[in-house]
Amino acid sequence: MSGIEYRPGYQQGTKPAPLDAQEQAHVARAFEETPSLFRLLSTLRTRRMGLGYKSETGKPETFEWAGGNTVTQPEGPLAWESQAPPVRLSELEEALLAWAALGPNGTVLADVPVQGALSGLVSWAGRTIPASSNDLSVDLMIINDDGVSLYRPISERLASIEIESPDDYAKLLHWYRNDRVLVDSSRPDIGWMTAPEGTHNVNAMGAGQYNLNRPGSSWFLPVGDVGIEWFNMLLASYEFSGFYIQDPDSGKPAGCDEWIRPGFLEVGFPIPVFDELALMLHSSQVACSVQNIRLACEALGLGAWAVGSYSDDMVLGAYPEIARGLGFSFLERDNDRNPSKTVTCLGRPGVLEPVVVPSAKFPTAAAAVKYVKELRYQRGAQLAREDNWDERNAGPFKSDTMREILEHPKSHIPDWVEQAAIQTVDWIVKKYGSCPAYVSPVRAKFSVQVHHVDPDFYNRYQTGDGRPYAITPAIADHFAAWHPGEPDPTGNA
């Protein structure tokens, strides 16, 4: 499964339920009354201390919510324990952050020349983040006190610009309620400490992760299908760039020898370098998503903690003997055929099934290559002749322009490119046991945890004129603005 889901008729049958008066006022506040981008950038900080958190107290604590381990963070100069209970984010706060992370924002411009790889775009559905080939390959896991849910708005759009007036505000909650599914009913066990009691704290989740995944927090974890990025990049490289995949050991073509000639494939690209490029392109999507959440938190007066120094393989579930994580499965690989000693994640049925060979969904190279190629041509897609996406979603192109695009030969990936890609993937699987070979097809390496800030920590330890500079007016006034009628646990009532 991926975020590319075509649903003809969506525009006629979808009418977001209206917001109540308080919800409308809150969303209006977010869009109309928060500081400008440049003002937000001036105060943007990582704030790690939230309501209900602790810092180097030296006291043992049992993490009942995640594995039941008893953990002690050694005592230090920043010893502190929040005196306030954790307060979880509201549904509306999470909906705003999820939309900022990678929500629908309309139709892309698709202003790529037809002769310059327009057919390389996998989708024309716009989101709040950019993506290589607009492949919608990154989904958002939201981990909170309810468990783990997957936020994945489909690739249909209701307007070229989705949020254009107050009449559109209801869409934010519509997407959050309708395009988000619960996949686990509890917080994941992520194995905070892996060493036996009494030994050094071997923390595979990173030394600074003591407050990660705590009750009351919302952990926004982008999870990406690097595999779809890899396979789509292969098709585009073969057709438009003239690069071919090269055996790093011998320097020879990786199974695509018959197409090595002028006008077809001309320059070698070693497999590990190609794999690294796919990972870098994936990482750029995730980084933009995390930054969007941070900026949205700064606007709303929430604490955001960008975090990446953890084992994402463990979070996904590669080491169930230590921690179940998110319960994803992994391919058993021969160490002698695994040059980078990476794990290969196969995903989780019904949640995320990456493009990787071999796997249950893609047992052969032909199955994977054909799937990625047809994403843009299948019924309902942007280059389809039936239920064309451009016509259904009112753009980006005028109807006469769209007809020219569909008739142009460069809008269609030629058969030789598909065959060359299949033979390349076959070669890689035979040599390494998996494709991609050097990188895992699923990554979740960079994320952001969000919480209500506890000003007590910053009042106690940090400088400021009247109040610590970490506490912006939006943070100081957050409960009054966003939780009216509720007690303010920060003491700012």
Characterize the structure shown.
There is one protein chain. A hairpin with a 2-residue loop joins strand 7 and strand 8. Strands 7, 8, 9, 10, 13, 16 and 17 form a seven-stranded antiparallel sheet that branches. The protein has a two-stranded antiparallel ribbon with strand order 1-4. The mean pLDDT is 93. The chain is globular and about 70 Å long. The chain has one domain: NADH Oxidase, CATH 3.40.109. The protein has 493 residues and is α+β, with helices and mostly antiparallel strands. The protein is built from 15 helices and 17 strands. The chain has helices spanning 10-13, 21-32, 37-43, 91-102, 170-178, 226-241, 271-300, 312-316, 365-374, 389-392, 399-407, 415-432, 455-461, 473-476, 478-482; strands at residues 54-55, 60-62, 70-72, 80-81, 104-107, 125-127, 138-144, 147-151, 180-184, 218-225, 243-246, 267-270, 303-307, 329-331, 344-347, 442-443, 447-451. Helix 4 packs across helix 5 (170-178) and helix 6 crosses helix 7 (271-300).
Please, what is the oligomeric state?
A: single chain
Structural class computed from helices and strand pairing: alpha+beta
Largest sheet: 7 strands, antiparallel
- Taking all residues together, what is the mean pLDDT? 93
Q: List the domain count as a whole number.
A: 1
CATH superfamily: NADH Oxidase
- CATH fold-type name: NADH Oxidase
